[in-house]
Specification:
The complex is a heterodimer. In chain A, 25% of the residues lie in helices and 17% in strands. Chain A is α/β, with parallel strands linked by helices. In chain A, the strands form two sheets. In chain A, strands 1, 3, 5, 6 and 7 form a five-stranded mixed sheet that branches. The longest helix of chain A has 17 residues. The mean pLDDT of chain A is 92. Chain B is of the alpha/beta class. Chain B has one domain. Chain B is globular and about 35 Å long. The mean pLDDT of chain B is 95. The longest helix of chain B is centred in the C-terminal third of the chain and has 14 residues. The chains are: A alpha/beta, B alpha/beta. Chains A and B meet through helix 2, helix 3, helix 4 and strand 7 of A and helix 1, strand 1, helix 2 and helix 3 of B.
Chain lengths: 160, 78
Amino acid sequence: MGELGEFSLKYKIFLKTYSWRRIDPVPFAPLTKALPECRLGLVSSAGFVLPGQEPFDEGVRGGDPSFRCIPWDSDPRDLVEYHKSDAFDHSGILQDPNLGFPLERVRELASMGKIGSVAPRHLSFMGSITAPGRLIKRTAPEAAEIFVEDKVDLALLVPV
Amino acid sequence: MSLVAAALERRGIPTVVLQLLRMVTEKVRPPRALFVPFKHGFPLGLPGRPEVQLRVLEAALQLFERPDPVPFIIDYAP
């Protein structure tokens, strides 16, 4: 169960005292098509990269705000996880990367007709960014432009 | 994730964020959140169980069609 009780004392204190960024006002984009006509893009914060892509940099103070584009037809078993946090159990996503970046599942949703198509590029971020200023000002808007270019109709965001 | 969701919504792309910690969801306020009863590291439930993962994703898709004013949090019922 994803509650505070699963964390060590160090992380419980952090989660309770951290100054979370409040989204205000809350933006709202309505769905403009039926789901079976929509192109879906995935966003994950599991810190996955593909072989040959630049790894996320653990040395960036406050967290690496960059992102990687993951082509729609990638094999999830090729994804390499760079999320080094000891706050959670990594065994599930190491065993089955679909658990944190469900590439095969969204392809199945498209083949079942539940969605119209899968975006050509999905987005992989690093989680646990404690200083999100660069993410808010620069990299998240850049990531949004990728989905706009690719005519993505809706996005599912999966944290770990 | 919620901050990325806000950037996408501002560019006209609707989002649903899976959430593992209700306290954080309530503080940050992503537009549409599906609260899943799984531990961190297991946002879609179980590894190697595509049917479980698909059920979570299909539940997330249903949030796009809800008329509720944002922000809202819906509890996933396995």
